[in-house]
Amino acid sequence: MNQLWLVALVLTVVQVVIAVMLALNYRSIKHTPIGKRLIMLAMLFLAQAFIAMTSYYTWASEGYGYDIAAPLTLITTASLVGLIILYDISRI
Predict the structure, then answer these.
(1) Residue 5, class by beta-carbon neighbours within 10 Å (0-12 exposed, 13-18 middle, 19+ buried)?
(2) DSSP letter, residue 1
(3) Residue 65: φ, ψ to 5°
(4) Which residues have C-beta within 8 Å of that of residue 69, sequence separation ≥ 6?
(5) What pLDDT digit, counting tens, does each position of 2-45 carry?
(6) What distance in Å separates the CA atoms of residue 10 and residue 14, rounded to the nearest whole number?
(7) Angle, alpha carbons 28-34-35 (nearest 5°)
């Protein structure tokens, strides 16, 4: 397993944590229509992170190299930045 796979896996773990924090921020408005949608969005981010994590681990175990790990790490980083921005907005 090369270092980029490890970075991608760590980033997906961070995504899981932030998605849970996002869902907890929306807990107080969960009975409103927008609150239900926002919690569903947080759960979709959580599911995406778990799917990415298992896929990355499988691909790393199968020996895929930098040519696969590099773009996926960039995509994961961009997704994490978006999730962090959404979390920051949710705290307002």
Answers:
(1) buried
(2) -
(3) -105, -155
(4) 2, 4, 5, 8, 56, 59, 60
(5) 899 999 999 999 999 999 999 888 888 888 888 889 889 889 99
(6) 6
(7) 25
